[in-house]
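Hi all, long-time lurker, first post. I run a small reading group and we've been trying to get comfortable going from sequence to structure in the token notation. Rather than ask abstract questions, I figured I'd post a concrete chain and ask someone more experienced to write out its structure so we can walk through it together at our next meeting. Sequence below, copied exactly:
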Amino acid sequence: MPSDRSTIFLHVGLPKTGTTFLQGLLLEHAPTLAAEGLHYPLGHGHAHFHAALDARGNHSFGGGERPGAAGAWGRLVAAATEVAGRVILSHEIFATADAEHAAAALESLRPHEVHVVVTARDPARQIVADWAESVKHGRQQSFETYLRRAGITTSHTSKVAKNSTVFEAQRLAKVLRVWGTGLPPERVHVVTVPPSGGDPGELWRRFASVLGIEEPDRFRPGTGVRRNERLGVADVELLRRVSQALDRRIISQEFGAVTKELYAQSILPRVSSTPPPVLPETHRFRADRLADRWIEDINAAGYDVVGDLDDLRPRHADGPGPDDWTDAQLIETAAAATAELLLEVAELRRTAGDLQRRQDRWSPRNVGRALRRRVVRSR
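-- Answer (accepted) --
Happy to help. Here is the structure in token form:
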């Protein structure tokens, strides 16, 4: 039976702000956290991903429909409202919802006390990371095309391209308005991601403090907690060209498993020999201005800030821009990645061969022969 009024924390992103790491910690330590009064319902599998797609009213992702999204938000709400205490729901896809769908999602959680949690990182890192992530998902656009569609160009009067969804989930002030409307500002929590090079555990401590987790350092990341690996500048370009060569010949679900999970997130990080791309100097003033607006909007709204708003100000670092790769680097990366991919194929063939031999051994014909031989020997 549903409990009395619970406290439900809805973590809506943003993407590329450590969400995978945080969700991994919640899942790995779910039994202990539940015993202490914080529940992460349906944390296994794709339940929160499908629920976020359903809540935003669009079940398409990565170029294909996701059948599991139908009714997924209702199922997650049912699971969340069946437990007593505090509940955390988390997926970065929630950040793509419009105001109408966000309001409907929040309404479905009443009469429970709802808190919205937004993790946020400086826009200079977010711009490059969001483009690289789009390439992981099969987008073939160059960095300059991405910037133009997002309205992030060297022009001081540039605008977002019509009907463009590029960078939409990264527009912090808009996401806060969409999900924060109707909630007291003290129940909208902005958790800032510490600057690059800092203690990786600090983000978890900040996030945990919002959820009421005491002594968060007890919950250490194990082997099951995955961080999204940053790709080198040549890695991203190679992946972009691979997607062009595939030319949509892999369906979206297979693309996610083979191209994104295996190639982009397993093989390429192992062979990477180039540094990650950074925002080019020509675009840095736009990121600085964007950070200023975010900070002004957060201060004006009176949201609860966990961390330091100065963390949202870019600390521009030296490094290659997204187009600063060489043909030699690209060839070296392609050769190393191809070798790793061939090793994966060889291992799969060995596994498939072993399974086929086991299946043949237990085929009806072979079982019949074995039985007949045993009968003959027993006479």
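A couple of things your group might point at:
Residues 149 and 163 are 9 Å apart (CA to CA).
Strands lie at 7-11, 38-39, 60-61, 64-65, 86-90, 113-120, 188-192, 304-306.
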